[in-house]
């Protein structure tokens, strides 16, 4: 699962279209099921953001998914023919056309284990409980929140916790549900001097035009998620690889769809990528229908606060560059009156949000690591015929969004299940040669 081992699977899973913006074709996949592309980047704010990063002294990268992640450049999305190209579109729907793949819609209750081997899954459908038997293996891919829940309901997890809920212990694995990680972020919002942002479509007529263009041609603003520029930077000297991520958006808007009261604006989502905080997923009861207890434990170390303050100050510096001056009117949030550590901390308490990247709760590791849940072939330690293949197996959260790495996990796990593997790559990623001495 080193860089050399996973790069071939990232390449196998994707069909990459760079839209003529330049990039790194030797590092990218050409005929995989997952379509990866870039937005048109027509709005001048996307280019201004990248230029501002360069003026602040950061590298520019033509392809952060290629050799060089570090720097400012175009962002990518899983879109094909104007539609979000999900894992269901890429993998499940084509597989359902085969004779050896059936999809059963049911509520999964637990894995059935007999004599130390997973033999099936207990499900509920139509008000009845039944067991679907496995001919070979059971593979859990229920998410970093539900995979540990399923394991614990099946008797695999911290023995004391299972006993508290009257669950018979099959395997005492204290790491099940522990090590929960996520990316936390906030968004810097700025008012825009020029009426060039997506706010001009923030009305019934504008939305209707965008919707009609998409409906009839599958093109236009409706065919993009609008995050068309991004950046990955290092927070300090001595940090060898990027640990801060930016998504840039040419409108000032919240995730719940509330646009900034000031009208035209733009924003950058920013947050540290390697938080030292760790949370947990535990059972609320032995009833499979009860949601698990989820404690993310955000911002629980002093380092989290130090890292986020850096994000605030480094971002202000980037947006103060000349490239943004024709567009930037003023800072909406946090607001320039918030300058001290205490003032910034107060803002963060109110405004940090999840980037929806939970992972780590069934971490991969050596069999003698008491906190490891699966081995390097995704097999649950201590049980035969059972694997986990989703973001819960990540020992540490990735340097970026989880969609791609989670799909790669499925690709690589499928080869482990079949007892094969792709040859490792000799390609090596770019590290900033001055990382020991300089932040940029």
Short description:
The protein is of the alpha+beta class.
Task: Describe the structure using short key phrases.
440 residues, alpha+beta, 7-stranded antiparallel sheet, 3-stranded mixed sheet, 21 strands, globular
Walk me through this protein's architecture.
This protein is an alpha+beta fold. The strands form 7 sheets. Strands 3, 13, 14, 15, 16, 19 and 20 form a 7-stranded antiparallel sheet that branches. The protein has a 3-stranded mixed sheet with strand order 1-2-4. β8 (117-125) and β9 (128-133) form a beta hairpin. It is globular. The chain starts with a helix and ends in a 22-residue tail after the last helix. It has helices spanning 3-13, 44-55, 87-96, 143-153, 159-164, 204-217, 302-319, 341-351, 403-418; strands at residues 14-16, 34-38, 71-74, 76-77, 79-80, 83-84, 107-114, 117-125, 128-133, 138-140, 156-157, 171-172, 184-192, 229-233, 244-249, 265-272, 280-282, 293-295, 328-333, 353-354, 386-388.
Beta-strand content estimate = 15-25%
Structural class: alpha+beta
Q: Would you report the number of β strands?
A: 21
User: pLDDT average, as an integer?
Assistant: 96
Distance between the termini: 29 Å
Q: Please estimate the helix content.
A: 10-25%
Q: Topology as H/E string?
A: HEEHEEEEHEEEEHEHEEHEEEEEHEHEEH
Number of helices: 9
Largest sheet geometry = 7 strands, antiparallel
State the shape. globular
Poorly predicted runs of 5 or more residues: none
């Amino acid at each position: 699962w080193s860089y050399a081992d996973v790069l071939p699977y990232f390449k196998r899973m994707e069909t990459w279209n760079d839209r003529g913006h330049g990039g790194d074709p030797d590092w990218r996949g050409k005929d995989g099921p997952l379509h990866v592309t870039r937005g048109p980047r027509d709005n001048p704010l996307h280019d201004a953001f990248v230029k501002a990063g360069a003026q602040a002294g950061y590298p520019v990268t033509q392809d952060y998914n290629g050799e060089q992640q570090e720097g400012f450049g175009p962002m990518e999305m899983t879109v094909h023919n104007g539609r979000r190209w999900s894992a269901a579109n890429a993998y499940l729907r084509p597989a359902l056309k085969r004779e050896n793949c059936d999809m059963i819609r049911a509520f999964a209750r637990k894995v059935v284990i007999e004599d130390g081997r997973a033999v099936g899954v207990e499900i509920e459908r139509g008000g009845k409980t039944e067991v679907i038997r496995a001919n070979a293996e059971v593979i859990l891919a229920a998410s970093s929140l539900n995979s540990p829940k399923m394991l614990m309901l099946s008797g695999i997890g911290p023995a004391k916790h299972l006993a508290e809920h009257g669950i018979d212990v099959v395997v005492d694995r204290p790491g099940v549900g522990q090590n929960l990680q996520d990316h936390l972020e906030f968004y810097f919002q700025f008012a825009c001097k020029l009426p060039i942002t997506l706010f001009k479509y923030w009305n019934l007529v504008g939305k209707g035009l965008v919707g009609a263009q998409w409906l009839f041609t599958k093109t236009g603003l409706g065919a993009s998620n609008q995050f068309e520029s991004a950046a990955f930077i290092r927070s300090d000297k001595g940090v060898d690889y990027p640990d801060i991520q930016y998504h840039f958006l040419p409108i000032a808007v919240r995730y719940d769809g509330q646009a900034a009261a000031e009208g035209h604006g733009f924003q950058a989502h920013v947050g540290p990528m390697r938080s030292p905080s760790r949370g947990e997923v535990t059972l609320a009861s032995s009833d499979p229908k009860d949601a698990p207890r989820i404690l993310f434990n955000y911002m629980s170390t002093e380092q989290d606060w130090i890292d986020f303050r850096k994000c605030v100050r480094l971002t202000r510096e980037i947006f103060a560059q000349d490239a943004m001056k024709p567009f930037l009117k003023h800072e909406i949030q946090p607001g320039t009156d918030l300058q001290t550590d205490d003032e910034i901390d107060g803002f963060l308490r109110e405004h940090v949000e999840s980037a929806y990247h939970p992972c780590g709760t069934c971490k991969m590791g050596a069999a003698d690591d008491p906190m490891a849940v699966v081995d390097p072939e995704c097999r649950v330690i201590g049980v035969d015929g059972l694997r986990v293949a989703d973001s819960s197996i990540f020992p540490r959260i990735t340097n970026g969004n989880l969609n791609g790495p989670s799909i790669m996990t499925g690709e690589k796990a499928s080869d482990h299940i079949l007892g094969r593997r792709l040859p490792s790559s000799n390609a090596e990623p770019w590290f900033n040669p001055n990382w020991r001495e300089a932040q940029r």
